[in-house]
Amino acid sequence: MKNSFFTTSRSRRLGVIAIATTAALALAGCSGGGDSDGPTTLKFSYLWSGPEAKVLETIIDDFNESQDDIVVKGVSSPDQQKQLTSMSSSNGSFDISDNFGENVGSWAAKGVLAPLDEYIESESIDLDDFAPAALEQMKHDGQTYALPIAVHSFQLLYNKTLLDKAGVEPPTTMDELADAVEKLTVTDDAGKISQLGIGDAKTLTTLTTMGFAFGGSWSDKNGPTPTDPGNIEAVDWWQKNVVDLVGADNLADFKAGEGQYLSAEDSFFSGKVAMIIDGEWRAASASEVAPELDWGVTSIPAASPKLENSTQVTSSTLFIPTNSKHKDEAAEFLSYLLSPEVMEKFSLTLGNLPARTSLLDSDAYSDLPNFEVWADALTSPNAQSLASAPYSAEYATDLDNAFDDVVRGKSKAEKALDYVTTRTKSYTK
Amino acid sequence: MSMLTRRRPEARSTRRREGSKRPRSTRRSFWIGVAFASPFIVGFFGLFAYPILASGYYSFTDFNLFQSPDWVGLDNYEQMANDDVFWKSLANTLVLAVMGVPLTIAIALGGAHLLNTPIKGQPLYRAVIYLPSIIPIVVGGYLWRWLLNTQYGFVNYFLSWFGISGPSWLQEPDWTKPAIVLVVLWTVGGTMIIYLAALKDVPHELYEAASIDGAGPWRRFLNVTWPTVSPVTLFQVIVCLIAYLQIFTEPYVLAQERLNNISSGPDQSMLTYAMYLYQNAFVYLKMGYASAMAWVLFIVTLIVTLVVLASSKRWVHYGSK
User: Fold this and answer.
1) What is the ipTM of this complex?
2) What is the pLDDT of residues A233-244, one digit of tens each?
3) Are A307 and A382 in contact (CB under 8 A)?
4) Which residues of chain A are within 8 Å of residue B259 when distances are taken between CB atoms?
5) Potential cystine with A413: which of A177, A236, B209, B233 (Cβ 3.0-4.6 Å)?
6) Among residues 100-159 of chain B, which lie with CB inside 8 Å of chain A?
7) pTM of the entire structure?
C-alpha cells in the first residue's frame, strides 16, 4: 500500500472532492435569495434599456426612499426568452416585470400571470381612468392579468415640405389619401421609385391598423376573423393604391434599399417617403435624428364619416408572475408605478402616451411635437386593439406572411386572408 | 493499481460473510472511478439522455412549458403532415443543403490546394482564411446584413465595378438562399484546414510515379489526390450535411426585421426547419409540436447520413490494405 498512488485517505479525499465538484456544477444557478426579517426585497426585471431604464432607476430610488418595508432592485434584462424561462419554474427570478399587451392572453391562459383584480381593489387603482382599448388587452376570461404603464397609437405622419411641393393637403378621407399617394409618388427616368407616397413602418401594424380604419375587425369572441369584409377592403385598397401604382417588384426594390428603422437613414426621416403610418415614439426620435425635418401628423383618413379617428392601440404592460413570492409587495410597487406622477415621468422619457386618460391634458407633454394628435386618438370610440389571445403570436405571423404576399403581388387580398383562415384551425386554444 | 487488488486472507473471509463477490478494495476503486467520471455521467444523463427521452415523450403530448403535458397520441405528427409551413421550412432547408454542401466541399478542397502551395507568407494566408471562423456567427451575420444591403452594401458596390447590377439579396425570395450560403461559406476555413491536413498525408511517391507515367495536374488530382482524401471527404460531407440540416443562426440573423420579432424573410424563403422548430417551441409555446419536429429532423438526418454512408462504398478508398 505504501507505494500505491491511491493511498486510502487520499483516494477518499479525492473522491469526495470529485463528487463535491460535480454537485456544485449541477446545482450552480439554482440558488435563490430569501429574506426573513427586515424589509422585503423585490426584484423588478424589465425589458427596457437605455434612457427608459435610466428613468426607471430614478423611479425605483424614489420608491425605496418613500417607505421602509420594501426594497426594490431593478434589473434591465431585454431578453424575452429569459423572462419566459424564469416564469416557467417554481422559483422565479423576479417579482414584477413588463411586456406587451398582445402577450397577456397567451400567458394568462397558461397560468403564468397572477390575476390582479384583488390588488386593483386593495390598492384602489381606478380602472376607469385607463384607456379602454388598452385595458381590453389586459383581460383573460373576465380577469385582469396586467396593467398598462404606457400606450401607443398609430397615426398618419407626413412630410410638410414634400406635401407643399406637390400641392397636396393632408388627406382626411381614403379617396384623398389615394390621391395624395399618387401625387407624392415619383419615379425616375428608368422607372425606379425615387420618392414613395406612403410607406409602411411594418407591414403588419400598418395593414392591421388600416383594417380597423375600414371598419374591419381582426377577431371576435370565437377567435380570429381574418376575412372580415373591412379587413379585405383595407388590404385590397392598399394593393390597388399603393402596390399596383408602382408595381410590386419596383416597390420591393425600393424597400430593399431602405435604411435602418428610426435611424437617420429611415426613409421617412430622409425624405424618401412622404407619408407613413406609425406611432407616437416617432416624435421623440425625429427630434433626435432628423431635427431639420418639417413634419406633421394627422388622424388616419376615414373610410366613412362614422369611422373617423380610427386607430390601433398597443400597450406596454406591467405584470406579476404567478411564481413571485412577494405578490402583495409587488402589487404595492405596481400601484406606485401606475400612479399619475410616476406614469407621467416615465412615459415622457420616450414620448410615449400615458395609459391614464386623465394625464393626456397634462402640460408636461406640451414640448413633444404634435403629441395631441396621438393622444386624442386614444379616447376615440374607434380606437381598437388586436385581441390578446392564446393564439396571438401564431396569428400575427400568418397575417404578416399574408400581407407580405399581397405587397409582393403574389396574391390578392381575399385569397391571402382566406389562406390565414385555413391556418387558424391549428392555433393554440 | 496491483496493490489495490491484492487480497488479504482475513479480508476475504469477512467478504464471504457479506455475500459480496468482489474484494472491498476493488469495489472502492470502482466507486473512486465513478466519482471521477461523475461530471461526465451527470452531464450525460442530465443534459443528453434525459432531455432526449423527455422530448420523445413530449412529442406525443400537448405541452406549453407551463402546464403539465396532455397526451394526444400521434396528433402532432398528423398536424405536421398537413402544415404547409412545416413543408416549406423543410424544403428551404434541403435546398440550402443541396446548394451549400457541394460548394463547401469544392471550395474547401480547392482552397486547401492553394494554401498548400509553398509561397511566401503561407502561414499568414492560412490564418486569414481561418479568421472568420473565430468571429461569433451573430456578429458575422449582422456584418453581412450590412454588406448585402442593396443601397449601402459593399457586395453590390463591388459587383458594380464589373458592370453587374447586384440583386436585392435579402428581399428577393430567389436570392435569399444564395445569400445564406454565402454567409455560411464565409467560415469555410475550418473545413479547409482539415483538407489541408489530409493533403499533407498524400504520399509523394504516388505523385512522382504519376508524373513519370505522364499524368498532368488534373489527372494527378483525379487519380491520386481525390482517392487519397476521399475518407476525409466522406467525413466532411456528413458533418457539413448535418450542419446544414440544423442551420439556424445565419438565416435567423439575416431575416430579422426588428429585435424580438419573428421574421422568416420574403415569401418565408429564409424560414429553415430549425427556425420553425424554435418558433413553435419558444414563441407559440407549442413544446409538444416542436418536440415532434425535432424527432422528425433526427430521423431525416439519420436517413440522409445512412444514404451517404451507403454510397461511400463506391467512391471512398481506404488505401491498399
Assistant:
1) 0.81
2) 999 999 999 999
3) yes
4) 78
5) A236
6) 149-152
7) 0.84
